[in-house]
Amino acid sequence: MTTANKITITRILMIPVFVTMALYYGRSVSHGVPQEWMRWTAIALFITAAASDGIDGYIARKFNQMSKLGVILDPIADKGLLLAGIITLSVSNWHYEFPLWFPALVISRDVVILAGTIALHFILGSVKVQPSWLGKTATVTQMVAIGFVMLQWNTHLATIGDWKVMFLDIPVIVAGVFTLVSGLGYVRRGIGLVHSAGHGDPQPPSQLLR
Q1: Sequence-distant (≥ 6) Cβ neighbours of residue 130 within 8 angstroms
Q2: For residue 129, what is the DSSP state?
Q3: How many angstroms separate the first and last alpha carbons of the chain?
Q4: Could you tell me if 92 and 26 are in contact, meaning their C-beta atoms sit under 8 angstroms apart?
Q5: What would the pLDDT profile of 8-61 be if each residue is shown by its tens digit?
Q6: Alpha-carbon distance 155 to 134, whole Å?
Q7: How far is it, in rounded angstroms, from Cα 78 to Cα 110?
Q8: Tell me, what's the pLDDT at 204?
Q9: Whole-number pLDDT of residue 209
Q10: Whether the Cβ atoms of residue 161 and residue 167 lie closer than 8 Å to each other
Q11: Residue 123 class from Cβ within 10 Å (0-12 exposed, 13-18 middle, 19+ buried)?
């Protein structure tokens, strides 16, 4: 097994440890005795895991360690870490948590992209999903939002009607906007591929049954 793959597997194994520390910290908060060392341990684990993504990629390219296993494991590790952070910080009883619409939006977007990719593969025979700059920006903004929420640096900024706008609402809203727009962008590209191949036009029943 290559060094790059070992780093990727280690990143995957760090995810449940991060989740455990985050949940235990949330429990300590709900009991009124926050154990800050648990929060900082969760932060350290998340940062280390996120940083290892660039490290294993660099090693794989630098030392020609690209492998089929790495191609499969790397996106699993990346998406697993991202979703684990968002979902955990939505239900873990921290002082500030992600609003429920945020994990719902992120998960829905990923499900739509996955389902769309499978549908395109079925319709077109093969499809290669190329990450867009909006998709990459959405990932970055999601990571930034997770980082800010874990730091728990929060303050009241303004009041709009009955809504008290907090500082941590800002990175969450920004990440939500890019997540939604990037998801719509992928849907538009998928529809464009279908139409460009002529599959969006009416087809005789005999052709549909082939």
Answers
A1: none
A2: P
A3: 43
A4: yes
A5: 999 999 999 999 999 999 999 999 999 999 999 999 999 999 998 888 888 888
A6: 29
A7: 13
A8: 57
A9: 45
A10: no
A11: middle
